[in-house]
Structures are given as structure tokens and as C-alpha cells.
Amino acid sequence: MVTDTVLDYGDRALLLQFDNTAEVLAWTAALRDAALPGVVDIVPASRTVLVKLDSARYQGATRQRLRKLQVRPESVPTAPPGDRIDVVIDVVYDGADLAEVADYTGLTIAQVINAHTATPWRVGFGGFAPGFAYLVGGDPRLMIPRRSEPRTAVPAGAVGLAGEFSGIYPRRSPGGGS
């Protein structure tokens, strides 16, 4: 797997662009495993990976190393690395959108709940607000579009679905998930 889009992001970073989150996760894992000289941080997002560098002198060499990096989608870890732990979060499924999600997916409310809890989710990347993590790896039947008009206030602790992601709002904030 190769990315054709590598952009300079200032003189101390490169921005890699991808078509989907699976590619982002595969490249993030490969970059972490490669431990390239001069790389001080790797910041994944929905369709990009930002590679932050110690100084401008690493930019050209890192760009060349990226072309040689072997990245395979199947190399994305399905389980957290050994130094990470599973976190179990109790969820009360009684939100106002639950019936809408069931209608949209063609599932019953019980099937929506089962689909959301039956597959482990993992943090894909940090989100739009401090403490918000976009969770990936859920049941594809739960892919629903973001709300056309985001809510101005979603309560802290609410669980949302939007596109291929789920997330837990860490504090009261605006949000477009259902």
C-alpha cells in the first residue's frame, strides 16, 4: 500500500493523505514500528497521518523513507498492543436517537444494542474536542450518516455513532453523532 499524497506541513512535518481509515491505521502502525530517525510524533486522523519531525533537516530523508516503507492493510493490529489494556465502559442505551438508529439501519433496538456491544471498539484517533476519541472497528451495520444539523449541546457521557465511528462525549459539547 502506497500513499501518493505526501504534503509538506511546514518545515517540520509531513501530512499523508488516504482514502479511508483502514489505510490510516495501517500506516500509523507501520510508522510506529519503523521508528524512523527524526520522527517525534505520529498523529492519525480520519483520512490523514501527520508525521512530526524533530527538525527541518529530516523532511527530505523522511519523505524518501516513506516511499520505501512496506505497509499492508492486514498489518493493522486488531487487538491493542501488549502495553495497552482493554477498557470496559458501561452504557445505558436509552437515548433519544436510539429508535432513529434502529429505523435507519433496519434493525430492532435490541439488535442495535447487540451490534454496538458485540464487537470491540478501539481508539482510532483523537477528536474534535479534548478527551474525545473516535472509535473504530464496530459492526458495519451501524454506519449511519452524521446528523445534517449537529446538536449544539450533547451531554457528557453520551455515546454517538457517525459514519464508521463511535465516540463517547467526554463533556457537554456540540456534536453530530446519533
TrEMBL record:
SMART domains to which the protein is assigned, alphabetical: AHS1 (SM00796)
Listed GO MF terms: ATP binding; hydrolase activity; kinase activity
InterPro entries the UniProt entry points to: CT_C_D, Cyclophilin-like_dom_sf, PxpB
Gene3D superfamilies: 3.30.1360.40, Cyclophilin-like
KW Transferase (keyword) present: yes
Domain Carboxyltransferase: 4-178
Stretches assigned to coiled coil: none
Keyword annotations: ATP-binding, Hydrolase, Kinase, Nucleotide-binding, Transferase
Protein name: Kinase A inhibitor
Lineage of origin: Bacteria, Bacillati, Actinomycetota, Actinomycetes, Mycobacteriales
Name of the gene encoding the protein in the UniProt record: kipI
